[in-house]
Design brief:
By secondary structure, the chain is mostly helical. The chain has 20 helices and two strands. Helix 5 crosses helix 6, helix 5 packs across helix 9 and helix 9 packs antiparallel against helix 10. A two-stranded antiparallel sheet has the order 1-2. The protein is extended. The N and C termini lie far apart (65 Å). The relative contact order is 0.06.
Length: 410
């Protein structure tokens, strides 16, 4: 906005100069100095000044909560610490830009971290300002002390975001809401939690199970805040596992998740992330790279239009196809979508693409390459692959075996 306005006036001044010359410009400057007035508004309280600042700005571009936090904290900063304040604020902004997150989001996550186990019940700007008033100003500390702590927290988020060797963190980046899992993970990183890697696997398990069961992240909001508090209090991981297990049982999550996993899963938002989670578990740590979900296609091994080819009709009945078409055992991952002719082709022809033998549709997914063990694709192969995938999910998400359905026990 500032650059736009500066360029606008530069252009107008050049037009003015070209039309009326230097004398005209001089007259214009004299007009500004004689007729434009700068009004100073004095208030008794900083809070009143900030309120006026907010009201004035509602006439133009609205202020974000981060803008209000900055204005309030800067007003409370001693003059000899203001340069330090600016540097710290710029450091926090840099992390936000790198991660393509808003400053408001980062301060919101920090507020959850600081207030846990309690839930913030006011706007984030009020929460941050109150933290400063109560925990810093009242003890003789300045705003820069608070910003140092915020900076440390957002650096922890940056470490989480850039993590490639932790399969649990990579998988959690696909979750539809990052607020709680990211705040828990960043809190543990900032607090140097001893069992950090095992904790992240437990958190992945928690959020994926609730997602697959059909719940939103709000269902585990209070539990998330409790976990953050336990991390800050250096509670052992076994204690955290216990409260997670109790919550999963209370909300009947295991049963609901297994029921959904064993049904028609094609089209579920969690399907690609879940298959990618299995993929990461089978990848070598040094070769784990976050895969953009937009680049991934869910492939039906038995095609959706299977009736168009005699090969498929020789192996499949209407009843069997209806039972298995959209279930886990018949689905796999590809980097690019096959054209329709190849999608409906007999299994031996499709297998060339799954193995990566055809350059037009390369695949490097382990889940797809292991299909080379089969020569044909019949209901028996689908059922076996379904059992295998279910067993892998049970291991990764640590689902008690008592929830296995009779057909899956082997």
């Amino acid at each position: 906005r500032f650059l736009y306005v500066a360029n606008f006036f530069k252009k107008k001044l050049l037009e003015l100069y070209n039309s009326i010359g230097p004398e005209g410009i001089k007259s214009f400057i004299e007009y500004l100095l004689d007729n434009v007035e700068v009004v100073e508004i004095r208030t008794r309280e900083v809070s009143e000044a900030i309120r006026i600042f907010q009201i004035v700005n509602t006439r133009g571009l609205g202020l974000s909560p981060a803008d209000i936090i900055k204005a309030n904290l800067y007003a409370e900063t001693p003059r000899n610490r203001r340069e330090e304040f600016k540097i710290l604020w710029q450091n926090i902004e840099k992390v936000a830009i790198e991660q393509k997150r808003s400053l408001t989001d980062l301060f919101t996550y920090y507020a959850y971290y600081r207030l846990a186990p309690n839930r913030p019940r006011r706007a984030v700007q009020d929460v941050i300002i109150n933290i400063f008033e109560v925990e810093y100003k009242g003890k003789g500390y300045t705003t820069t002390n608070l910003l140092y702590d915020v900076e440390e927290f957002v650096k922890a988020i940056r470490l989480i975001e850039s993590s490639q060797d932790n399969t649990a963190i990579v998988a959690m980046r696909y979750l539809p809401n990052e607020t709680y899992w990211l705040t828990i993970s960043a809190s543990a990183k900032k607090e140097n939690y001893e069992d950090f890697k095992e904790l992240t696997r437990e958190i992945r398990r928690l959020f994926y199970l609730y997602w697959i069961a059909g719940y939103t992240s709000q269902k585990v909001r209070q539990l998330s805040l409790k976990i953050i508090d336990m991390i800050k209090s250096e509670k052992p991981l076994d204690d955290i596992k216990k409260i997670i297990e109790d919550k999963l049982e209370d909300d009947d999550v295991y049963r609901l998740a297994v029921m959904n996993l064993d049904g028609e899963v094609y089209g579920q938002r969690w399907l690609k992330p879940l298959l990618l989670t299995i993929e990461y578990e089978y990848s070598e740590p040094a070769k784990i790279v976050y895969i953009d979900i937009k680049d991934v296609h869910i492939e039906h091994i038995l095609p959706q239009e299977w009736k168009k080819k005699d090969y498929w009709k020789n192996y499949w009945t209407e009843e069997e196809a209806k039972r298995w078409l959209n279930r886990l055992g018949n689905l796999t991952l590809l980097y690019s979508k096959m054209n329709k002719e190849i999608q409906n082709a007999p299994f031996p022809e499709k297998l060339k693409y799954y193995k990566g033998l055809e350059e037009r549709v390369p695949t490097s997914f382990i889940l797809t390459r292991i299909l080379r063990r089969y020569t044909d694709w019949t209901p028996k192969e689908v059922a076996n692959r379904h059992k295998w995938l279910m067993s892998e999910i049970f291991k990764i998400l640590n689902i008690p075996t008592k929830y296995l359905r009779p057909a899956e026990k082997h």
